[in-house]
Amino acid sequence: MNKKYYIIDFDSTFTQVEALDELARISLQDHPDRELIYKKIEDLTNQAMEGKLSFRESLAGRVKLLEANKEHLKLLVKHLKKLVSPSFARNKNFFKHHADDVLIVSGGFKEFITPVVLPYHIRKENIYANTFVFDESGKIIGYDEANPLSFEGGKVKLLKELQLQGEIHGIGDGYSDFQLKEFGMIKKFYAFTENVARKSVVEKADHVTPSLDEFLYINNLPAAISYPKNRINCVVTSQVPDQVVKQLKKEGYTVKQVEKLDSSNVVKARIIVAGGKEKIGEEVLEAAAKLKLIAYLGNAAKAVPVAACTQKGVIVFDDFKKPASVLKRITGFINNGDSFKSLNFPNIQLPALSRVHRCIHVHKNVPGVMANINQVFADHQINIVSQYLMTNDHIGYVIADIRSDYDKVLLKALKKVDNTISFRVLY
């Protein structure tokens, strides 16, 4: 089997920020011209990332402006540990299982990269980056100019030296990451846009990955969640407050804002968030074949065909007191299966997931369904870690947590159980 390697950038990819920019804000916080210098450093960063300035020119210019020392670096590391990209933070398990295959390759510096990535099971010998040069007092006075990563096209130079034998995938946000594909050093380049989307880079990518979840999903690699949020389309009406829209986007959902719901704009919707004056007709529900959830900012009983939603396995939340609670209910259901405070599902609040896959089965509340579900688990020799069942007059809501070492045939069998309304799997 052909070995696979994953080359991952650090700045604005593994972390949410550009570390040298952050270091400048720490080291220059008392400088009278700090805002001007910050701007110069950020401009040098962006010009290099967009391919408008050679990396070596950008690096030399930024290091010269820093006026930083080892104490500043300690503060930076503490700061960066809190700014690991959310999708990287939740996928520690991937790095643990692929410790031999993941390489951090960055034009940044080992002094701050190494302590940030080591807790994620990244091997020290798999971290490739520049190194600072210090004077006797610990002040940064330069960098190792012989390091290939300090040159323009440094990542290409490094991979030529490493001569990795296998299929190589590259993930990053900058032009230097794309160069690996441009020069034939990797099979695929994934433009990482969770933190920043650079048009000149995105246009050249084999695939745009808004999160690490997306990358893991399309490559069938172990992930913290079964379905990337960027693939979950959320249609929001104009009456919904901007605060809610911003929260949904920040959480990673693909958000489409519309003036009014109709059969044409909900076709791909998995979530609908509507304001208090919007009426949701059954024709909209019929058109939204993928719909899983409706969040209604008002009295849904008067504006949503609740009975029809129940028959289709669409959960309805309504009457939110605070905008923040909208995201809480949506994410609780999508991430964890929580139906607490829903209008039409049996109300259940579940413990967080831990090293299991969670199966969510919604079915008509008729005798025998639960027995049939458990028979499927038995037929496939599945050890159920925990199981929850609640019903109301119309539906049964079953949650089963199972170990991840099962055959995918199991999922098909669960979908075929008589009287099934909907079925999905969470990680």
Automatic annotation (TrEMBL):
<dbReference type="InterPro" id="IPR045865">
    <property type="entry name" value="ACT-like_dom_sf"/>
</dbReference>
<keyword id="KW-0718">Serine biosynthesis</keyword>
<dbReference type="GO" id="GO:0005737">
    <property type="term" value="C:cytoplasm"/>
</dbReference>
<dbReference type="GO" id="GO:0016616">
    <property type="term" value="F:oxidoreductase activity, acting on the CH-OH group of donors, NAD or NADP as acceptor"/>
</dbReference>
<keyword id="KW-0028">Amino-acid biosynthesis</keyword>
<dbReference type="Pfam" id="PF00389">
    <property type="entry name" value="2-Hacid_dh"/>
</dbReference>
<keyword id="KW-0479">Metal-binding</keyword>
<feature type="domain" description="ACT">
    <location>
        <begin position="358"/>
        <end position="427"/>
    </location>
</feature>
<dbReference type="Pfam" id="PF22629">
    <property type="entry name" value="ACT_AHAS_ss"/>
</dbReference>
<dbReference type="InterPro" id="IPR036412">
    <property type="entry name" value="HAD-like_sf"/>
</dbReference>
<dbReference type="InterPro" id="IPR002912">
    <property type="entry name" value="ACT_dom"/>
</dbReference>
<dbReference type="InterPro" id="IPR023214">
    <property type="entry name" value="HAD_sf"/>
</dbReference>
<keyword id="KW-0460">Magnesium</keyword>
<dbReference type="InterPro" id="IPR050582">
    <property type="entry name" value="HAD-like_SerB"/>
</dbReference>
<dbReference type="GO" id="GO:0000287">
    <property type="term" value="F:magnesium ion binding"/>
</dbReference>
<keyword id="KW-0378">Hydrolase</keyword>
<comment type="function">
    <text>Catalyzes the reversible oxidation of 3-phospho-D-glycerate to 3-phosphonooxypyruvate, the first step of the phosphorylated L-serine biosynthesis pathway. Also catalyzes the reversible oxidation of 2-hydroxyglutarate to 2-oxoglutarate.</text>
</comment>
<dbReference type="InterPro" id="IPR054480">
    <property type="entry name" value="AHAS_small-like_ACT"/>
</dbReference>
<protein>
    <recommendedName>
        <fullName>D-3-phosphoglycerate dehydrogenase</fullName>
        <ecNumber>1.1.1.399</ecNumber>
        <ecNumber>3.1.3.3</ecNumber>
    </recommendedName>
</protein>
<dbReference type="InterPro" id="IPR006139">
    <property type="entry name" value="D-isomer_2_OHA_DH_cat_dom"/>
</dbReference>
<dbReference type="GO" id="GO:0036424">
    <property type="term" value="F:L-phosphoserine phosphatase activity"/>
</dbReference>
<dbReference type="GO" id="GO:0006564">
    <property type="term" value="P:L-serine biosynthetic process"/>
</dbReference>
<dbReference type="GO" id="GO:0051287">
    <property type="term" value="F:NAD binding"/>
</dbReference>
<comment type="pathway">
    <text>Amino-acid biosynthesis; L-serine biosynthesis; L-serine from 3-phospho-D-glycerate: step 3/3.</text>
</comment>
